[in-house]
Structure formats: structure tokens, C-alpha cells
Amino acid sequence: MYSAAAAAATAASPPRRDFISVTLSPEEAVGAGSYNNSKAWRRRSCWRKWKQLSRLQRSVILFLFAFLAVCGVISYTSMGEPWKSLTNKSLDDQRTEPEIPGLKLANPAVLPAPQKADANLGDYPELSPQKPPKPPHVRRGPSNLQIKPPRRDVKLKTPQDTSRVVEEPVQADKEEKMEKSVISWRGAVIEPDQSTEPPSSKIKEPEKPSSMEAEDQKEPVPINERQMAVIEAFRHAWKGYKDFAWGHDELKPLSKSYSEWFGLGLTLIDALDTMWILGLKEEFEEARKWVVNDLVFDKNVDVNLFESTIRILGGLLSTYHLSRDTLFLEKAKDIGNRLMPAFKTPSKIPYSDVNIGRGTAHPPRWTSDSTVAEVTSIQLEFRELSRLTGDDKFQKAVDEVMKHVHTLSGKNDGLVPMFINTNSGQFTHLGVYTLGARADSYYEYLLKQWIQGGKKENELLEDYMRAIEGVKKHLLQRSQPKKLTFVGELAHGHFSAKMDHLVCFLPGTLALGAHNGLPADHMKLAEALIETCYQMYAQVETGLSPEIVHFNLHAQKGHKDVEIKPADRHNLLRPETVESLFYMYRFTGDKKYQDWGWEILQNFNKYTRVPTGGYTSINNVQNPSNPEPRDKMESFFLGETLKYMFLLFSDDIDLINLDKYVFNTEAHPLPIWVPA
Ligand code: DMJ
């Protein structure tokens, strides 16, 4: 087309440089030296070219332009939306991607959506206790049951802090209730309605963790070196039990055998929730299998109502709460039902012993009395069983005991005698008062039931407050030379400066009461008493407390505060001091309590650890060169002592949060019934 037009133009008029230059090839133009690539030159050249076209040619070209323009408008409107969203998405991606200089993500808009935090809960990190310096972040409990790891912002409660700290869980609970999800802690899941319902409610199947909760996960608090040492101690104890006593009640670590009390795998059941809390997944699964296959209550065997309630029923209930595995609840219901014949007495004060296979109960052979601590320290467990099953018979039976004891005469300013008759329902052996054996956990359970029930049962609080006043009035004294405050005993008006190690539960209980709003002087007393309990270890040659001490009331040259009688110098690996150290550390944040516990753990390792596995009670805490091993590991060493050690060394207040759980007297945590 250009050639024809050029030829025609050449013939009609003299050649014009600019025109010629357009029709020539660039080489020719350059050769002619006339090529000018300026914008003005190009504009003029196009216009001339346009003018040279025929009208038809111009019309065709204009039509083509118009047609293309219409097509363009149509296609823009149909593609506009996706384009817009793609553009916005890219912007969003830019907002959420961190800006790393020099690094660009390839095709960020087409990356797969991120996985949810719990998409693979089966990936449970294994503990590696061999590497204490940088311990792994561990989610406690078997992976499939793990819900919420602990909070990142670990805070210790101080008395000044209390109001603020208490508000947190309440607010959190409110939000969780609104979402109709579950309240949970590290695998513990409590349905909100379950945690508030009265005993008449029906049991519900546990819920699986929702994806919403998974999103809510927080960074686990790492396990520290001291906690790793507890895990190591537990594994050593467990090795002995597994190798020589598997499925039996107690390990005899020296003779590499076992002893039987009820024939119900007492150590294994007592240790279940400890394994959960310590994160010992493999051990837990193995023990669970034993419960599935071998734990049978249909046995012609006499069990002690109190001991089997606090260790077996309590252990099964807390393991159910932590794991949400209904196996443990079913077993708890089974044993709970089998213990009920104990309450068929003329007074409704239960007998001490029950044959769980035959469904019969009886007092000990030599008396029709029961021990006061025993009949008043089964309430947390039976009440919880009623709440979970919806069957109020368990709670009714134990509440009746408490109501009856509340009205009884024979107390001394709230202090109770040690025995109660199952026929008459009256206290017997009047006039002897102790916070030690046979009475201890009566006081503990007054406070703890009040807390468990949402602080509404005033009679329990009244009895507790009165009893603490009774302790102050009749049982408190100070020793010489260190002026240690201790709790003695009263027998028919005579004060005895004797204190059982068992009494060392008291500082922890007093601190728990103060944390729950009871008078501040309870905390002061707790601080004084825990110092005394620590001295019961520190002043002894092995650094381990004897079963019973006598305090010196008068200064004597060369005498310490603590005296030990030959019959009392054994140590059964008991938990009470470590238990109280745990409460004291939780509520004060004072590291000295952790240090004291650490000393005690080291001394257990030094004097009671058996090289082939297990720990043993000893006969003589005063002889470091021969503490005389007794060849028995009590189940509470795993159920309580090591559990409280682990909790004491933790800085994670959500590791069994004391505003959500109350420990039974065997250290099995049960949920506090949150007020509706
Ligand atoms: C445990 O069985 C319980 O703590 C009980 O309350 C007292 N005795 C032992 C531990 O010492």
C-alpha cells in the first residue's frame, strides 16, 4: 500500500523529504541522512499519511477502531471483579507477609492456606530428660488429648496481686462460656455446664477439641532443670515398680518384689495423673492398658474406705478430668458404687472397711469406731462423682456425715477428737486433740469442700474458721532456741510438744484459705509453720524429716529445736512439707521455697534411692552412713511427693491452676465447681 501511494505522489508533485523518508526503508533513510526520530516529526508524518488515505480507507479504519473499543468495554466489565479481588488479595498478602529486605515470596497469592495449629495433634514432642540445659517445649499429656498449652506470660501471684490475678480466669471463663466451647487446661477439658451443674445433672460424653480452641493455643512454658530432675526421679521410681511390682500395690525395691494391700495396683493408679502432669506419655499409655485389661474391682477383698477413696477413686477422677478418657470415669463409678455399703450403719457414719466384691462393710475387728479424719476426708471425691454421674446418692451419703459432725458435741473450740462411733454417731476417746494422724485431713477437707462447692456452704467455712482459732488457742507454741512456731497436741488438758510430719499439710491449707479470701493472719501463720516444717528436715543429719518430732520448749545447751525419739525416726517418703512448699511458692513467688524443696529432693536421692529402681522408706533419718532402708515405696511417693515437687519447681500458674482445681488429700486435682 505504501509503495503504490508513494509512486502516485512522486508522479504528481516534487518529492518532499519528509514524505520520502517515511516510504523508504530505515537503511535508505539513514543513508540519506534525513531520518529524524523526534515526536513532532512522527506526529506530522502520521497525519500526512492519514490525509493520503481514501475516504473508504479512513472509514474502514475508523470502523475497526470503534469495533475494538466496544469489545474492550464489554470484556472489562466481565473481568473487573476477579481482577479487583486479585488486586485486593495481593494487597492483603503484602500486609500480612513480613517485610524482609531483598526477599520476595514467589507467587504469594497462590500459596496454600496455612495449617491450623492443631492440624496434626499426633505430633507430640518426646521428652528428652538427658538434655536439661535447654529443655524442650513440651505439651503435657498424650497428644490426642492435648488442648491448651500453658500461657506465655507466666506470672506468679503475690498477695498484692491477688485481685487482679483472680479476675483473669473469671473473664476467660465468661468468654469461653459465651462461645459455648470448653474450659480447658493442658488437656484438661471441663464442659462449662459440667463444671457448674449440681449433682442432678447427667454425665456427658467429653467433647473433642474444637479448631477454635486450637487457634487459641499458647506457647507452652518450658520445663526447667529442677523439673527435669523430678521427671528423672519419677522414671527411676517407675522403673523399679515396672520391673518388680507391675500391677501390684507397692514396690519393695530392695527385695525386688512387691507388697499387696488391696490388690488393686495402688501405685499405678495413684501415679496416673502424675504421669499426665509430668508429660510421660509412654508410661501413661502403658499404665492405661493395665487399667483396661487388668483393673477389676469385682474381687473378694476388704479395702479401707478412706484409703481407697483418696487414692483409687480420687486418682481415677482426676485422671479422667485431665485426659477426658471415659475409661477412668467408668472405673471411678464402679469403685464408687462398690464403696457405698460402708454407709449402711446405724448412724450413717461409715465403717472403715468394705468388701468390694461382696458388697459388705464392717468396722475394724477390735472396735466399732471409725477414725474422724477418715470419715470426713472422702467428701471431695464422692461429691465429684455425683456431679459427674448425675446420681446424688454419693454426695448425699458424705454430706450427711459432714452435717452430723457439724452438730456434734465434744469439740474443743472447733478441734475434733480422733474417733467416732458408727453405732451412736458420737465422738469417742474425748479430750485428745491433734492436727496429726487421725484428725489431719478433717481440717483440710473443711476448707477444700468449701472451695470445691464455690464457697457457698457456710457450715464448712464456719467449722474451718473455728478450728483454726482452736489451733491458735490450744496447740500453737514456740520452740527453743530458734523460736519455731509449731502445732503440738492436747491430751486431757496437757500440752505435748509433739508434732507429726503429717501436720505439715497445714501451712499449705492455711495459704490456700488466705488465697481464697480468709484472714491475712492465716498466711502469716502459714509462713511461720512452713519454716518449722523445713527445719524438721534441715536440723536432721540426713536432711530428711522423721515421722514425728518433739520440740524443745526450753533452751538447753547443745540442743536444737527438734528432738527425735528412736521409735519416730523413720521417713516414709511423705509429701506434706513439699505439698505446703508448693502452695507457698504459688502464692508468694518466694524462691526460697523452691530451694528448700530442691534440698529435700536431693536428700531423697541421696538416702532413699535404690540403684536397681525405686525409692525406699528408711528407718533412721539420723544416720547418714546407714539410714536403714525399709524396703518399701509407698504409692503416695509417686502420687503426691514427686507431683508436688514438679509443681513446686514450675513457674506456670496454669499447671493445675489453683483457682480451677482443688487437690484431694492424695494430691489428685479435682475441678472447682464454678458458680453458675
Ligand atoms: C497420704 O495417703 C495422704 O496424704 C493422707 O492424707 C495422709 N497420709 C498419706 C501421705 O502421708
Describe the structure.
Helix content is 48%, strand content 9%. The chain contains 23 helices and 20 strands. The protein has a domain at 225-668: Glycosyltransferase (Alpha/alpha barrel), CATH 1.50.10.10. The chain is elongated and about 135 Å long. The chain is mainly alpha-helical and 676 residues long. The structure holds 1-deoxymannojirimycin. 1-deoxymannojirimycin binds next to helix 23. 1-deoxymannojirimycin binds at residues 441, 502, 574-575, 636, 640, 665-666. Ca(2+) binds at residue 665.
Q: Which key phrases capture this entry?
A:
Glycosyltransferase, binds 1-deoxymannojirimycin, mainly alpha, elongated, 9% strand, 3-stranded antiparallel beta sheet, 676 residues
Largest sheet: 3 strands, antiparallel
CATH topology of the domain at 225-668: Glycosyltransferase
Per CATH, the architecture of the domain at 225-668 is Alpha/alpha barrel
The residue ranges in which pLDDT falls below 50 over 5 or more consecutive positions are: 1-42, 75-216
> What class do helices, strands and sheet pairing give?
mainly alpha
Rg calculated over all Cα atoms: 39 Å
Average the pLDDT over all residues and give the rounded result: 79
